[in-house]
UniProtKB/TrEMBL annotation:
The keyword Coiled coil applies. Residues 22-43 are annotated as: Disordered. Its main location: cytoplasm. It comes from the Eukaryota. One of its GO terms (biological process) is apoptotic process. It is found in: Cytoplasm, Cytoskeleton. This is Trichoplein keratin filament-binding protein. InterPro entries: CFAP53/TCHP (IPR043596).
Length: 415
């Protein structure tokens, strides 16, 4: 604040520049001490991490505010010194008021219109300045409305950003759930693939075992081996979760039952063979050998057909599993890419929010400084206006006091 009229009158008592400078320095020190005691705030002794960061931010804001206040105080101090210098010059002009009054009285009547023109010219210069000052005052009155509108816009932008962030979190969660589901499906397919590979290996072992035992003379033992093979195939199919053709199941079960029935009949006839004569036994064995060869051919053909169908089924299932695994892997790659893009977008949004917040704070600080500066200019203009009026009044008083008395025109003595 600039000095009031009372303080201005007190400044008149200070006749020398040294006294004026001493008074100004004391007042500036007093304002600085009061500002320091007003804006200093104690810091808590024990704070957690979040409270400490909040306190640090608060201290930084206080420091920036103190810097702005000091800058404004320096500007005001400069203006005050200029004003005091101007006031001192006015005082010097007041002390020479009597001389100026005498000089004005000595000016002839033809010079008075010129002085009036100069006064009119000075007024014509001051009027636009006054109009500009009034416009500044009106703009200052409308400033709160602009700040309120800006605050509403900022609140709306924050609400939109919050909604976007919430939707982004929901999308990320859905993608994570879908990714986990694909992982489970991939694990199941992997287990199925392992079972199929195991079945494929077992079929290969069965084929090798049949080739080794193909020359067995006793057809009963060979049929027992085929029954074992068929039973293992049926057991494997029952344990597997894969779908198998109904025709293959029926063929395997029918062949298994047929072999079991033949083995049962062979054992019964072997018991009867012990009671036969040698000639009858030879004829029987010759006939049975032909039957066994024929049965072996049919059985081998059936077993090979069953094994071949089983191999084809396993290969088909493996191919299907491979396609499903590739589809799952493609979807997982797409999900990973989408999640990475979503994270980048989230990071960009956070950086954008921080930047907008910083810009908003900077603009708010500049606006506050501008408003404070305009307010100080208005106050300074009013004080200067009052001081000019006071000086003009003093000049008028001094002019009236020092004006000599008029005794009329001297007449010539005609006598």
């Amino acid at each position: 604040m600039l000095p009031s009229i009372d303080s201005q009158l007190q400044l008149k008592n200070l006749t020398t520049p040294q006294e004026i400078a001493t008074s100004n320095s004391l007042k500036a020190q007093t304002r600085q001490n009061s500002a320091t005691s007003k804006w200093a705030s104690p810091i808590s002794g024990t704070l957690n991490d979040e409270a400490l960061r909040a306190e640090q931010e608060k201290q930084e804001k206080s420091k920036r505010l103190e810097q702005r206040r000091k800058h404004l105080s320096a500007i005001l101090e400069t203006e005050k010194n200029n004003f005091q210098t101007e006031l001192l010059s006015h005082r010097q002009s007041v002390s020479a008021g009597a001389a100026r009054s005498n000089f004005l009285r000595e000016i002839s009547d033809k010079d008075q219109p010129k002085i009036a023109d100069n006064e009119f010219h000075r007024n014509s210069i001051e009027e636009p300045k006054l109009e500009n000052l009034q416009l500044d005052e009106k703009r200052t009155l409308y400033q709160p409305q602009e700040l309120h509108q800006r605050f509403d816009n900022e609140q709306g932008n924050q609400y939109e950003r919050k909604n976007r962030n919430q939707q982004l979190k929901i999308i990320l969660q859905q993608q994570m759930d879908e990714f986990n589901q694909k992982e489970q499906e991939s694990e199941i397919l992997k287990q199925e693939e392992e079972r199929l590979l195991k079945d494929q290996w077992e079929l290969k072992q069965i084929e090798e075992e049949r080739k080794k035992n193909r020359k067995i003379f006793n057809s009963t033992r060979f049929r027992e081996l085929d029954i074992k093979i068929l039973a293992s195939i049926v057991y494997t199919n029952e344990q597997s979760n894969l779908e198998q053709s109904e025709q293959l199941k029926r063929n395997v079960l029918n062949t298994l039952q047929q072999f079991q029935q033949q083995i049962k009949l062979e054992r019964e006839k072997e018991q009867e063979f012990d009671d036969m004569y040698p000639d009858d036994a030879a004829k029987y064995w010759s006939r049975r050998e032909q039957e066994w060869n024929h049965e072996r051919e049919i059985r081998e053909k059936l077993i090979e057909e069953i094994i071949e169908k089983k191999k084809e089924e396993i290969i088909k299932k493996l191919k299907l599993l491979k396609q499903q695994q590739e589809e799952i892997h493609d979807k997982q790659r797409i999900l990973i890419n989408d999640m990475e893009q979503a994270r980048k977008y989230d990071l960009i949004e956070k950086q954008k929010q921080l930047k907008e917040k910083e810009i908003s704070n900077t603009q708010q600080e500049r606006e506050n400084f501008r408003l404070e500066f305009e307010k100080q200019n208005i106050i300074e203009h009013e004080d200067k206006k009052q001081m000019d009026q006071l000086v003009q009044h003093e000049i008028a008083v001094n002019t009236t006091t020092n004006e000599p008395k008029f005794y009329g025109r001297r007449r010539a003595n005609w006598n």
